[in-house]
Design brief:
By secondary structure, the chain is an alpha+beta fold. It is 32% helix and 26% strand. The protein has five helices and six strands. Strands 1-2-3-4 form a four-stranded antiparallel β-sheet, with helices on one face. Strand 1 and strand 2 form a beta hairpin.
């Protein structure tokens, strides 16, 4: 796992290098890019779905996640998948197909790419408008 994380960090994907990849009983939360609902994603033994997490009722309005076929992965998703396979992390590689797959918002029913929204919510944002640090560059 350390090699997997280091590879991501060296690739410049610092947010991804810090992510949890517990595809045994992993739950993630992202905001819907269309309506901003906090969407709970399950990728593991409890199922592979998106849902709204209700305090009393648990995960409600579940929608199945749709994995990306491994041969259709590209860019960082392909790199992560190939690295997991090369390291013998088959369960992780399968989980990554769901992470780079599609989810349906349980509220507005619009489809989004899970990894794109995870990155939008978790990757550090850099902008040319960022102020110069006190010590300069």
């Amino acid at each position: 796992m350390a090699l997997f994380r280091a590879d991501l960090a060296f690739a410049g994907a610092s947010g991804w290098s810090l992510a949890e990849y517990d595809f045994e009983d992993g739950f993630y939360t992202v905001s819907c890019p269309h309506c901003d609902l906090p969407v709970t994603l399950s990728i593991g033994d409890f199922g592979r779905y998106s849902a709204y997490r209700d305090w009393d009722e648990g995960d409600v309005r579940r929608r199945l996640l749709h994995p990306s076929p491994a041969d259709e992965l590209s860019g960082l998703g392909k790199r992560m998948y190939d690295t997991a396979r090369a390291l013998g992390l088959a369960e992780m590689a399968e989980g990554l197909t769901y992470l780079f797959g599609r989810a349906e918002c349980p509220d507005c029913a619009r489809i989004f790419i899970v990894a794109d929204q995870y990155a939008a919510d978790n990757e550090p944002h850099h902008s040319s408008d960022d102020p110069v640090p006190a010590g300069g560059w």
